[in-house]
Each structure stands twice: as C-alpha cells, then as structure tokens.
Amino acid sequence: MSEPLPESIRDEEQLEELLSEPTDGAVNALKQVQGDIILLGAGGKMGPSLARMVRRASDAAGTSRRVIAVSRFSNEQLLEKFACFGVETISGDLLNEEFVDSLPNVPNVIYMTGAKFGTSGDASLTWAMNVWLPSLVCRKYRESRIAAFSTGNVYPLVPIDSGGSVESDPLEPVGEYANTAVGRERMFTYFCNRHQNPTTLVRLNYSVEMRYGVLVDLAKQVLAGNPIDLSMGFANVIWQADANAMTIQALADASTPPYIVNVAGPEIFSTKEVCERYAELFEQEVTFVGEPAQTALLNNGSQGHQKYGKPRVSLDQLQIWIADWLKRDGTTWSKPTHFEVRDGKF
C-alpha cells in the first residue's frame, strides 16, 4: 500500500477503498495485459473489490479499457456501486447458454462463478455451476486469456507440520463439492489445451476482510461467548486486497497448459491461539471443546509470494482490525465459511 496501514478501519467506505487499492505489481501486470476485461460472477464477496481494483490498476497503468462485471445483480445498490467505480455491468443468469453467448467478446476473462454451500441438498446444481458452466465459458471465450478461481479444497487434508499443499501436489478432494472443484479445473485445463488460450487457475484459501471470512467467524464466536470447536485446529487466510492483487498478476502470467498458483497467506495459524488473541482483544474469556486434529486444509502460498511479493497485511493486523470492527458493531455478512468442516459436506 502506498499509505501506512490505518490503526482502525473507520467504515465500509474506507474498507472498500483499501480492498481495491492496487499493488505496483497489479498495475504493472495491467500494463502487459492488453484489451478489455470481463469478470464473470462478480456480484459475490470478492467481485466488487476485484473489479474496482482492475479499474484502478488500469487507470494507474495509463491503459484505456472497458471493465465489465457480470452477475444476476438482484441488488440495485450494487449496480450503482459498480457504476461509481467506473465498471460496466451486465445482468443475467450465467447458466443460460443464450445469455453466455450474448456476452461481449473480450480478450481477458476473470472467472469467479462457483457453488459451494448447499451441495449436500442439491448436488446437481453444484455440478452444473462448477463443471458444466466452465465448459460454456471456455467455448465462448476460446480465444481469450482466462484467470479462473479455484479453491484449496481440491487438495486433501494434510499434516499440520507439512507447510501446506503446494501446486504440484496430487489432487485428492474430500467430498462432493471438492470433487466438482477439481472438475472445474479439469474443464478449464481441457479447453486451454484444446484451444491454446492462456489460462491461470487460482487456488484461493481463504480470503478475509472485516465483513466475512474465517477470522470473522472465529471472532464472532469468541465475542458471543460460544465454546470454540478445535477439531479443525489450523488454517491460513489472506487479506482480500492481497488476493485481488495476486489474481490480477496471475492473469498476466496465464499460459498453456494452465499456470497454477495458490493464493494464501504466509502464516499457518492455530485456531486456539487466534481465539485466545481475540479474547485478549475483547477483554473476555474463551472456552474450547474438542482437540485439534493432526491434519487440516492448508495451502502453501510461497510460490505466489516469491513471484508477486508477500501479502501486505499480517494475521495479527487482521485480528486487530476485525476485533475493533466488531466492537464498534461494524457490518458483517451472514456468509459463514464453514472452514471447520472436515468431511467435505457443505
């Protein structure tokens, strides 16, 4: 960040400014990447800040381009927000083949669409969203550069002292959702190899900001005085702005066959220690149940850090910000991560 980190994040306006502040690396990447950029599924948790960062980084790079966000956009306020960012919007259902075919042809695509929660109740929809839809998009954008979001769930649970899964590790998904995530990657890889269009697979684990994420889930439990389940005893997270910046840089590095990068924070943290730190910040007690398992879903993000630079915001800084945000009754979203799930049933 060009400015020192604030001691406290004042409100959502300042938060969204921070989440969309591009790194020098993101700006340089968009000097290399030519042409318009479309973000598919941009109405979710990360989409608005990533689209805005693409806009800001493009402007800082002196590159004239359209930035287009696509989603159902049931929230009119979100449409107004994108317009204020200088981002165009197209509303529609990406599961509609005719709608996908009607989208503008652009040279750069960031694919953000996916389904995770509710897999156990409607598995067919999850397979459609995560496997069939990528094939539609790949046929539509067979000549475009694509960065597609994936997830750390494609990896198995690994020993907590392993350092986390690396990009070359075999994929051994746990549960039906994770299997569809591998299916999504396989579709992008198949069409990348078939059409020879450069592609990146971004394995994210886990993005966090003040309104949602693993750290927010844990902080809210501590603040409410709930016992903390330690069965998933370790995890890693990354400040959403850093995940956004790494994604933009990874778009520039797209290749054939696909370039694969883990996007994760450098610290593997103990759930117990994180909650004890929150108890200290909230000045209250915390209790625990269960024992930490000796395996967890962990991504090793060192390849991305070496290539794009270490994340700008540390784990402790995130905890300080989140605790302060919650003590001031800052807005949070009802979008729990369910990171504690070990059987893959979401």
TrEMBL record:
<protein>
    <recommendedName>
        <fullName>Epimerase</fullName>
    </recommendedName>
</protein>
<dbReference type="InterPro" id="IPR036291">
    <property type="entry name" value="NAD(P)-bd_dom_sf"/>
</dbReference>
